[in-house]
């Protein structure tokens, strides 16, 4: 496959290495300072664009590719309030757009475990639930996209909770799930869900040891997407 890399930072670099090691070629590696290279590309020769940039850049990058008929696999977090616009454009252009807040297969197993635990805890009482995420200090958004997905999984299954809030933002209420975001180098991404009572504590944790799992997941999805249409997610890709 011929892959366009939109956002050649920490993730873009590892994704390119993995893609090349699996026999793919890279059409271009685009960052903010070489975006003019896009105009020299022939969209018909690009099989997929992999987009890991930053919250303010994602929407422009994704639109550029969808408007040219290129399937997009995006992992950029922190821009999701604008995703409905991209969903509409994808359907209007009969294109393919795949988004995941986390491409690691392990995290996607963890998402399912989180939902199962929330369902079980919904049947009991006396526990306070909280979420903590730890990432490196270069991360631009808080809470992480993964923490938001986890929070949505809890809220959907745990009746007492109706929304989430970042701790320190003054929204404490028994109906709001507190998320603490810590920035500590070099953490690639740790997510902890805690149910605490005066008697005991139940805690589940996913710790990424590197960015390999995120990057490999994005390449695997990119190998799967050619020929697919519509707005896609990990639920379409995974068999569990
Ligand atoms: N879904 C998932 O599994 C994962 C998602 N992420 C998310 O992916 C995103 C990128 O993460 P990471 O690689 O660590 O971040 P980096 O900051 O290392 O890389 C982002 C890159 O995007 C470039 N960029 C900025 N503006 C544009 C633009 N307009 N067009 C193209 N490129 C641009 C930056 O260039 P410059 O440096 O020149 O500004 C930089 O090289 C983040 O939102 C992060 O949260 C990260 C890991 C896993
Ligand atoms: O910025 C990061 O590094 C990461 N971002 C994603 C997120 O916001 O959830 C995924 C992973 O946790 C690493």
From TrEMBL:
Kindly list the GO CC terms recorded for this protein.
cytosol
Q: In which pathway does it act?
A: Amino-acid biosynthesis; L-lysine biosynthesis via DAP pathway; (S)-tetrahydrodipicolinate from L-aspartate: step 4/4
Instruction: Give the top-level enzyme category.
Output: oxidoreductase
Extract the SUPFAM superfamilies matched here: Glyceraldehyde-3-phosphate dehydrogenase-like, C-terminal domain, NAD(P)-binding Rossmann-fold domains
Query: What keywords tag this UniProt record?
Result: Amino-acid biosynthesis, Diaminopimelate biosynthesis, Lysine biosynthesis, NAD, NADP, Oxidoreductase
User: By what name is this protein known?
Assistant: 4-hydroxy-tetrahydrodipicolinate reductase
- Which reaction is this enzyme known to catalyze? (S)-2,3,4,5-tetrahydrodipicolinate + NADP(+) + H2O = (2S,4S)-4-hydroxy-2,3,4,5-tetrahydrodipicolinate + NADPH + H(+); (S)-2,3,4,5-tetrahydrodipicolinate + NAD(+) + H2O = (2S,4S)-4-hydroxy-2,3,4,5-tetrahydrodipicolinate + NADH + H(+)
Which source organism does the UniProt entry give?
A: Algoriphagus aquaeductus
Q: Which domain of life is it from?
A: Bacteria
Q: What are its GO biological-process terms?
A: diaminopimelate biosynthetic process; lysine biosynthetic process via diaminopimelate
Q: Which InterPro entries match?
A: DapB_C, DapB_N, DHDPR_bac, NAD(P)-bd_dom_sf
Q: Where is the Dihydrodipicolinate reductase C-terminal domain?
A: 106-238
Looking at the record, the residues that make up the Dihydrodipicolinate reductase N-terminal domain are 1-103
């Amino acid at each position: 496959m011929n892959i366009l890399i939109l956002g050649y930072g920490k993730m873009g670099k590892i994704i390119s290495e993995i893609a090349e090691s699996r026999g793919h070629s890279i059409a271009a590696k685009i960052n903010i300072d070489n975006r003019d290279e896009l105009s020299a590309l022939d969209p018909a020769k690009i099989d997929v664009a992999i987009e890991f940039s930053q919250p303010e850049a994602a929407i422009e990058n994704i639109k550029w590719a969808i408007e040219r008929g290129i399937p997009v696999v995006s992992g950029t977090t922190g821009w999701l309030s604008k995703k409905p616009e991209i969903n509409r454009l994808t359907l209007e252009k009969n294109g393919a757009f795949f988004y995941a807040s986390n491409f690691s297969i392990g995290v996607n197993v963890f998402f399912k475990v989180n939902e199962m635990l929330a369902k079980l805890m919904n049947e009991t009482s006396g526990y306070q639930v909280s979420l903590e995420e730890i990432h490196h200090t270069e991360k631009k958004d808080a809470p992480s996209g993964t923490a938001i997905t986890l929070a949505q999984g809890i809220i959907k299954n745990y009746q007492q909770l109706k929304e989430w809030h970042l701790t320190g933002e003054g929204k404490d209420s028994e109906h709001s799930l507190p998320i603490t975001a810590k920035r500590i180098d070099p953490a690639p991404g740790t997510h902890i869900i805690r149910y605490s009572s005066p008697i005991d504590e139940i805690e589940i944790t996913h710790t990424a040891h590197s960015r390999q799992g995120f990057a490999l997941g994005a390449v695997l999805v990119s190998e799967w997407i050619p020929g697919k249409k519509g707005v896609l997610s990990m639920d379409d890709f995974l068999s569990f």
